[in-house]
Amino acid sequence: xxxxxxxxxxxxxxxxxxxxxxxxxxxxxxxxxxxxxxxxxxxxxxxxxxxxxxxxxxxxxxxxxxxxxxxxxxxxxxxxxxxxxxxxxxxxxxxxxxxxxxxxxxxxxxxxxxxxxxxxxxxxxxxxxxxxxxxxxxxxxxxxxxxxxxxxxxxxxxxxxxxxxxxxxxxxxxxxxxxxxxxxxxxxxxxxxxxxxxxxxxxxxxxxxxxxxxxxxxxxxxxxxxxxxxxxxxxxxxxxxxxxxxxxxxxxxxxxxxxxxxxxxxxxxxxxxxxxxxxxxxxxxxxxxxxxxxxxxxxxxxxxxxxxxxxxxxxxxxxxxxxxxxxxxxxxxxxxxxxxxxxxxxxxxxxxxxxxxxxxxxxxxxxxxxxxxxxxxxxxxxxxxxxxxxxxxxxxxxxxxxxxxxxxxxxxxxxxxxxxxxxxxxxxxxxxxxxxxxxxxxxxxxxxxxxxxxxxxxxxxxxxxxxxxxxxxxxxx
Length: 477
Description:
- By secondary structure, the chain is of the alpha/beta class.
- The chain folds into two domains: 4-145, Leucine Aminopeptidase, subunit E, domain 1, CATH 3.40.220; 156-476, Zn peptidases (Aminopeptidase, 3-Layer(aba) Sandwich).
- Helices cover 35% and strands 20% of the residues.
- It is built from 14 helices and 20 strands.
- Helix 8 (208-214) runs antiparallel to helix 10 (330-341), helix 9 packs parallel to helix 14 and helix 12 crosses helix 14.
- It is elongated, with a radius of gyration of 24 Å.
- It starts with a strand and ends with a helix.
C-alpha cells in the first residue's frame, strides 16, 4: 500500500493535524491560539464543515461531522475524508494525524475514506514520481481505538488497493496465468494457501465451460483455489467465495462494440480480484474463520477454433448447455466453479462477477445486484454488511418461472434467457449448478467507474472486498 497507518499516543504539534469534532467543545484548544479559536468559532457559526488554519510549519484542519454510526452518516464521513486527502495532497503534505474524542466508528470511517482515496495506479506512467500523491503516512490519536483496529484498517485498505491494482492492469500483462501468480503472491504475504490448476488438470476435471470459453485464446486457462483455515476457525463447514476471472472479454464470436464496451473489458475479472482481495483482508486480519476462494480464469477472444453460437457444451456437472451468445461467457466458467464448490460441503457460497449489462443498467454504479437461495437471517446479515461499508445490495427475485426462459430445444439449458430479466436469468442459470446456500452478486455497475467517485476513485474500485470481509467479520464475532 502507498501509505502507512499508525496509532499515536499524542497529537504532536510538529505534524499536520486533522481534528474531527461535532462542535467547538470537542476541539483541543491547546492546539490553537486564541486568535485561531476565534476564527474557528466564526467559521462554525457560518456553518463551515472544514476549517483550515495554516500554522506556518503545519496545517491544522477542523473537520465538523455528525457523530452517529448510522450507515448513511458513515458514508458522508468517508467522503469528507476523501475531500481532505485531496487538500493534503494539493499542498504536498506527506503526513497527517487524525485526532478526535468522538465515536470510534466515525473516526475509523473518516480514516478509511482518506486512505482509500489516496490510491493511485502509476505503474505504467513514465513520470510517475512527479504525479505521485505526497501523503505517505497517517497517524490516528483516539483513546478508544486499539492496535487491533488499526491492523484491521491496514488490512482492508491494503486488500482494496491490491484488488484495484489487479482490475486496472492491462490485459497484455494480466493473463489468466498472471492472475493466478498474483494470487499466489498475495497468499504468501497474507498467510493463505494457493493451488493453481493448469489446463491439463482443468481438462481432467472436465470443466467444459471454462475450456470452451478458452478455445479462442492462445493463453491457457487457470483455476485457482485459495484457502485460509486457522486452527481457531469457528466454522466447521467453509465459507466459499467464487469470483469470475475473465481477464479480457471481446465477446468472442458475438463480438462487442469497442466504444464504451470492449475498451473497458479488462475489468471483467473484477469478481475474481474481489474474492482474492477478501482472502487477503481476512487472512491479514487473522479472523478465526475457514474460507476458500475459487477463481476460474481465461480471456474470451474470437479465433479459428473459438466456440460459436450454436455449440452444445458439456459442463463439469454433466449438464449440457446450448450456446446462443458467446458474450454470455462468465456464467459458463462460473458454473464449473460452482459445481466444484459442491465437493467442499460449504456453509455458504457467495459468488461475485461482472456478469451482466442488465444489472448495470438497472441500478447503475450505486450498488450491487444480488439474488440467491439463503435463509432470511443470512439475507439480513448481508444487507447489514452491505450498508455498513456502503456497498449496498439491491436484491432481485429468483422466481422459478425464470427457468422457462433458459429452456433449450436440444440441450439441458441455453446460456441466455432472452431480452427480459437478463440479470435474473443469468443468476438463475448459475443456480442450476448449486446444491447449497448460495448468493450471487452482480458487480457490473460499480466494479469499474470511468469518472472519479470520491474515495472509490476512478477505474477499478475494489468493490466486494469490504462487503465480504465485513460480513465474515460480523459472522465470527
